[in-house]
Structures are given as C-alpha cells and as structure tokens.
Amino acid sequence: MTLWTSDDAALATSGRVTRPFRVEGISIDTRSIRPGDLFVALKDVRDGHDFVAEALRKGAAAALVSRIPEGCSEADPLLIVPDVLAALTDLGRAGRARTKARVIAVTGSVGKTSTKEMLRAVLSHQGRVHAAEASFNNHWGVPITLARMPVDTDFAVIEIGMNHPGEIDPLTRLTRPHAAMITTVAAAHLEAFVDIRGIAREKAAIFNGLEPGGIAVVPQGLEVSRILLYAARRHAGRVVTFGPGRGADYRLTKVQIEGDATIVQARHAGKPFIYKVMTPGRHFAMNGLGVIALVEALGVDPAVAVMDLANWSPPRGRGSRERIFMDILDEGQSFDLFDDAFNANPASLGAALDVLAGAKPRDGVGRVMRGRRVAFLGDMLELGPEEHALHAQIAAHPAMRVIDVVHCAGPLMRDLWEALPQEKRGDWYPTAQELAARAPHLIDAGDVVLVKGSKSSKVSLVVDALRKLRQPGAAEIFRG
Predict the structure, then answer these.
(1) Which one of 27, 264, 317, 328 is most buried, by most CB atoms within 10 A?
(2) 153 labelled binding-site residue
(3) Does 174 lie in the same domain as 32?
C-alpha cells in the first residue's frame, strides 16, 4: 500500500523531486531496509548520504537527501531538501495532519515502551493501531513514527522520551495527542537535571501538545504528582489519576504474583474490578492500570481491554521471561531468564529485583542441587553527580535479602558490588564483555536469572551468552 507519493512528500517537505516515486515505508538503516521504502539520509555517527546508493540498490523506492550523494544522479528517485531532519519532521507533521486517528502519547521514567505495547495490545481489536516497533521516542524517532502512520489508522500510540530539558515539548506539539499518559517519574537522567522535580516538569510537558479537550492520565501518589497534576489541569479537558492511593480515580488495591502472571485488584467509581498481566511485576500492574484508565477515558470498551491486556507480554529486553533448556533429553536441566537489559535506573532496577525476589527457583537439579536467584547487573547511566551513591544504595533494597548472588559489570556497579554482603557478592568485571564470557559458568539448572542494565552498558551481551546455552528444539519437545 502506498504510504507517500512523490507529490505528497514534496508538498509536505517543500522539497524537489528528481523523478516520481511511491513509497510503502520509511527507513533510516540500510541493514533493515525493505523494497519500497523511503530511505532518510540522517546524519548521526555516520552521514546517511554515504549509504543512499546502497539503499537504492537494495530496493529503496526513493531517498530523502540534502544533496545528490556520491554514486547517485538526477536520474535516481531523490527528494532533495535543505535539511533532512527538518524535512523528516515536516513529513511527520503532515502524516499526523492527514489522519483521523485518535492519537495517544506516552512518557515516563520507567515503562514507556511496555505501556506503548500494552496499548497496542488492548486497542488492536478495537481498530487499526499504529505504533513504532522499536523504542522510537526521540527527535527523529517520533517524526518517523508519525510519517509511517497509514492514513486509515484508528489509534496511534506515540512514545516520547527525553534525556535533557526541553526535548518533550516540541515532540508533543508535533504529535498533538488526544490523550497523554505519564507512567511514573523517578531518578533517571539526573545528569541533565538538578533533581527529580526537574524531571517531573519535563515529563509534564507532554500535556502541552494536547488537542483541545484532551485527556491527561497522571500517576497519583508520587512525591511529584502535584507538579504533574498542575500541568495536566492547565492543558487537559479531563484529568484521570491512577495509583495505589485512596484519592486515585483508578486505585490499585492488591497485586498478587502467581507464577508467570500478575493478578491485580483495583477500584474505579466505587466498583471493584480484576485484571491480569501475563508477566510478573508490580510495575507492570501499575502500567496496566494506567492503560485501562486511558482507554476507558477514550471511550473504548474496558471489558474488552481487560481481556486483551491478559494476552500481553513484554518484548525482549523489557522484562520478558523465558526458560532456557540446556539438555534436549532432560527437562530439569534448565533455568529461567528475565531479560531486562534494555534500560536501567534505580526505580526500574528496584522493580526488576522485586520480580526476581518473587520468582521461585527449582531445587534438586543442577550441580549444586539448589536453585538460586541470580542477578547480572550493568551500570545505570546518566544519573549525574550522585551516580556512585545511587548504585551503592541498591544493596539496601529489600529484595536483596532473598537474592542469592549478584554479578556486576562496569565501574559504577563496582560501588554496588562493594556494598553487598560478602556472601552475596559474585563476580565483578570492568566490562559487560568480560562478564558475558564468564556468565555461562556462573549459572546452574534450577536458577532464576535476571539481567539488567542501561543499554550502553552492553549488558545484553550477558543475555546473548546465556541464550547460547539453549539446545535447539528442546523447548518444542518439552512443551509439545
């Protein structure tokens, strides 16, 4: 299906077309480009213009450029503009303007991507849903998501993130959401902010772009909730709160972890209701409650939403759980892996440790015949001047009482490692690469294993190393 014609794209960007084209998608990476895509030659670590010729060879229908790249000519399908990023933003603005979709924006210190995926799941049976496949939430990811939106979309879910002050406001004004949700506010990106109140003010900027009469969904019970509510009431036609406190419109009353599921009791308008999330974690319960509040405020059938929420599970790197079978003949020779290696700050790490603490290892298998709760942790980044103290403080988290051993990688995680009791202190290595090389020797059958860290810490290498222990076909045999 045609996403953009050359005429429409040229009108949106005020660009010049060298020859007519029709595109079916948008890409910024030649490694994942598909035939029919518009290749956008952004400048980042490398200049995208260096890859235009390759993109066209791979089947790109056209390229968005600021000059004719080497290896190309006027005979190639090019859309030439003064500035590629500005033109991409214009394309996103036009994509937003031409659709009648109800647009939802999501931000928060923790849980943005998981909440976006929950919304995709609960809205998918209520209409055509558009949302980014990856965590496209910055100054180029949001325009790409909007520019990729099909005209006939019914619901669009846009994730908006930030690293520095002033980043959310232009993105929410570009998105123009009908509803906006903040998942939570916690100590993250403190390198760029004085304190958590500054983070809250930046997150609250998501309400600046609300359409007239729009809906603001706000977490209640945080120390900065007043800041969020003040901004929400200034810009929203309706404000809905969620959280564990008695004053919340949607109040969490009980969370129960049962194996791989989280069963939640809540109340709204004086009436109790129950919902389930098919992954363990109180933070997933809270995100789910915010999702239910948002979709009901939009007028979506809440009963259908609750049922569809039960079918959602987190994507890889966001807290997903899997069993790694190491022996194709012996089901017991396996361990459970929580892959939460995409991002980390003190709040999300605490939530992940709670999940690990609530998981049940299996005894009677493996070398030591006693299942353990094992954590592999990489540095939490962008925490500012208090980064060393914030890492060390994790040793006092209540979940640590039942976690058996903690392996660490990175200079900041050295502070946590040194703060741990000797009996819980596993290995420490300067880099995740070194820890990954040792990781297969540090786990045993029956263990429950958590891997968590900021993306740039590269702790996902530990996940890769542990997944290599899987015997091909074993999962199908034991579950089949």
Answers:
(1) 264
(2) no
(3) no
CB burial string 296-333: b at 16+ within 10 A, e below: bbbebebeebbebbbebbbbebbbebbebbbeeeebeb
pLDDT tens-digit readout, 457-480: 999 999 999 999 988 765 555 555
Pair (217, 330) in one structural domain: no
Taking residue 457's Cβ as centre, other Cβ atoms within 10 Å add up to 24
Are 257 and 380 within one domain?
no
Per the structure block, which two tokens stand in for 8?
């429409």
Is residue 111 marked as binding?
yes
Number of domains in the chain: 3
Each residue's pLDDT tens digit, 137-187: 899 999 999 999 999 999 999 999 988 899 999 999 999 999 999 999 987
Residue 347 lies in a domain: yes
- Which CATH number belongs to the domain containing residue 358 in this structure? 3.90.190.20
Query: Would you say 112 is a known binding-site residue?
Result: yes
Q: Does the annotation flag 110 for ligand binding?
A: yes
**Residue after which a domain boundary falls, among 288, 309, 330:** 309
Report the range of poorest mean pLDDT among 61-75, 307-321, 332-346, 389-403: 307-321
In contact, 240 and 250? CB cutoff 8 Å: yes
Q: Is 124 annotated as a binding residue?
A: no
Report the CATH number at residue 174: 3.40.1190.10
